Amino acid sequence: MSLSLAKYESFLVNNVSTISSLESSLRSITWFLPGRFKDAELASEALTALMNATSMYHDTILAKVVDKNPQYRPLIPASLHTRYTRAWIKKSSQYKWSARILELLRFTELVMEMVLKRKLSEKTRWRGILAIETIKTILRLLLLKITCRPLLSSPLPERDFDPTLLPPSSAESSPTLVSSSVSSLPATPDHLRNNHLSLPPHALLTTSPPPMRSDMAVEEYLLPKALTTSSVKPSISLLKALSSPQEWLGEIIYILRPFAYASLLAYDRRNKRTSNRALMTIFVMELVSRHLRRTPPASAALERSEYARRDKDMLWYLLRGSIWETYTRPKLESFVASASRAPLLGLFGVLVKEWIPLIDEYYYYTAP
């Protein structure tokens, strides 16, 4: 088993660019599957979950190869999110496994809901949803306890390095990878193929640069290349620890929102009643959490980007509860009807038309 795993890891490292392109192509296909055949939405989400889980495993392998290969020099420095999450993964095994389990649940929760809806009763389906939300809430609270900092939307580092920059000897740098029997020599650069005749000078060397129009042009050129405070901070210090009870309370309220929403919806479905209590409750919790959180300084780029993402996520309320039923869905249905008469917009309208029933039927399409 270990030999087969090592061979697969070696194959991944040697063909990482092709595999990355294949993963991206398969994810794009899943957007067009719903409505094409019976249980197409289940096949689409199952494929998406498989691709996400596989990509997470591939990222783990590639990160190990890069860490063990001193010759790897990325052209673009790692993002603040990658630096922060990678530092916590190296520091705490509890953080690493809690984050991985949380991401796996996020990848597969919709597939599990679809299976429960098809195979079991509606009551059992909502019990499964509550079980998933309970586990996710416990894991998020555990991550909060470990880091004592605001949670990021993805607790795992993203693949933000170029796979093509991995040197050919990457497979040999990992202890779990088998050595390749065939070594490909790098191609000879153009400027070394002829040592007798000099090559003509490049056009960039013969033409003078355009004149600077003002001092502002110099500043605009130099500012992106200048170091910021985030560039020299330790990775774990990119997010400041929560200090006051108000900050802790705001973060805990934000973490409890999904569980509260699922619990109130399950109670309403069990009693066969229709109300806006669930929607209004989590909306109030969202506003309270937003009011209690601290205002990060301009230098706290990672924290500011996370809070900006949370603010943008409030647009999801347009797809929930009575807002969806009375405002957003009629607007989309009207758009689909008008787009069907346009040659190009008709394709997009058909895609939207196939997704509207899925938002009505499944909780996790628009869950917080």
Give structural attributes.
63% helix, 368 residues, single chain, mainly alpha, 0% strand, 15 helices
Describe this structure in words.
Helices cover 63% and strands 0% of the residues. It is mainly α and 368 residues long. Among the domains are: 3-163, no CATH class; 317-367. The longest helix has 29 residues, at 40-68. It starts with a helix and ends in a 7-residue tail after the last helix.
Instruction: Bin the helical content.
Output: 55-70%
Task: Give me the number of helical elements.
Answer: 15
Report how far the terminal alpha carbons are from each other.
39 Å
Instruction: Give the uncertain stretches in residue-range form.
Output: 169-185
Strand content bin: under 5%
**Main sheet characteristics:** none
Radius of gyration based on Cα positions: 25 Å
Family: Belongs to the peroxin-16 family.
Organism: Agaricus bisporus var. burnettii
Subcellular location: Peroxisome membrane
GO biological process, one term: peroxisome organization
Quick summary:
One of its GO terms (biological process) is peroxisome organization. The chain is mostly helical.
Summarize the SSE layout with pairings:
Elements: H1 2-14, H2 16-30, H3 40-68, H4 80-91, H5 93-119, H6 122-147, H7 170-173, H8 203-206, H9 215-222, H10 229-232, H11 245-270, H12 277-292, H13 301-312, H14 321-339, H15 345-361
